[in-house]
Amino acid sequence: MKKTFAYNYSYDQWESWINEHNHPVYRAKQVMDWLYQKRVESFEKMSNLPKSLRSQLTESFELHPLKVITIQKSQDGTVKFLFGLADGHAIETVIMRHNYGISVCVTTQVGCRIGCTFCASTLGGLKRNLTAGEIVAQVIMAQKHLDVSNERVKSVVIMGSGEPFENYEETMKFIRIINHAHGLKIGQRHITVSTSGVVPNIYRFADEDWQVGLAISLHAPNQDLRSSLMPINRRFPLADLLDACWYYLRKSGRRLTFEYALIGGKNDQDEQAHELGKLLQGMNCLVNLIPVNFVPERNYTRTPRDQIFKFKRILDSYKVNTTIRREHGHDIDAACGQLRAKNSQLIQGE
Q1: Is 105 a catalytic residue?
Q2: CA distances from 297 to 115, 121, 292 (A)
Q3: Rounded to an integer, what distance in angstroms lies between the CA atom of residue 48 and that of residue 26?
Q4: In the UniProt entry, which residues are flagged as the active site (predicted)?
């Protein structure tokens, strides 16, 4: 019998399973506590559960779907994991240290089919979606790594490889599990999900009626340029994307983040800065300028430092809130998908 991965279960599912196996439902809270607060390595260590329940859990559930293939550690404290999955595929997860606390960047798909020309994640195409539990396990593994130094994951960004809104149901389930009072208790305001612009699911996300942050990968201020950098823009045109963004702003009342990767000579000139400023003027948003990581297969160059600051000054002149992302892991394979591509010979399923 194939076992179910324990971290795939929400609290409600644990209550149902416990009840079906003739145990009092309060055992569900105890199981969740062992999984998420104590982070045990085996069901046998759940010492306040009756032996019969521990045996049933061992027979029915798997606790270890991720194995560490390699870890890279940066001088700035960034830690990047390459995890192997049960089917031989591999995914990346990153721990990043900020002045406001530690965040973990999780992956939602093995590979990606979106095809953004500046991203390494899409080089091998999409292999499959991850389950909610496989996404949860990335945070658990990161937290176990931090347990050694008595540190805690404060926030989660769903910005790793893949398009979260093309794996919508499992991504939403993941958020609910890590946010739950008996899960990792990570507050909704400390969770952000990023999309390349899957318009129908931006509307769905706005209607979830919660406080989880939303980031849009924009990267260009007009239809033609964005389509050349991000093929998804042909399926969901920029005008439709902006309509969905305005709907989100009206529905949620929260500020929206636009991610803008600056690519030398492509989208980083004064002309594009003015165009972007006019496009977003009056919108409750933050533009996060990201100096693009060099990906050998893409041959893109980084925007000169002076031009990055000039681009920001132009956006400021339109009263568009703008930040320049602090780089993490510049001395390791920082870009999404780079570590997986570099270690393809070690990955069975690739």
Answers
A1: no
A2: 13, 11, 14
A3: 12
A4: 92 (proton acceptor), 336 (s-methylcysteine intermediate)
DSSP 8-state symbol, 302: B
Token pair of 241 as six digits = 């994307």
Select which of 15, 92, 134, 166 is catalytic. 92
Are residues 136 and 191 in contact, defined by beta-carbon separation less than 8 angstroms? no
Q: What is the CA radius of gyration of the chain?
A: 21
Superfamily in which the 67-346 domain is placed by CATH = Aldolase class I (3.20.20.70)
Each residue of 34-76: pLDDT tens digit?
999 999 999 999 999 999 999 999 999 999 879 999 999 988 8
218 assigned to a ligand binding site: yes
Question: Is the Cβ–Cβ distance between 112 and 126 less than 8 Å?
Answer: yes
Determine whether 336 is an active site residue: yes
Tokens matching residue 299:
């041959």
- The CATH architecture assigned to 4-62 reads Orthogonal Bundle (1.10)
Considering only CA atoms, which of 8, 2, 4, 36 is closest in space to residue 132? Answer: 8
Sketch the domain layout of the chain as residue ranges. Answer: 4-62, 67-346
pLDDT class of 340 with cuts at 50, 70, 90: very low
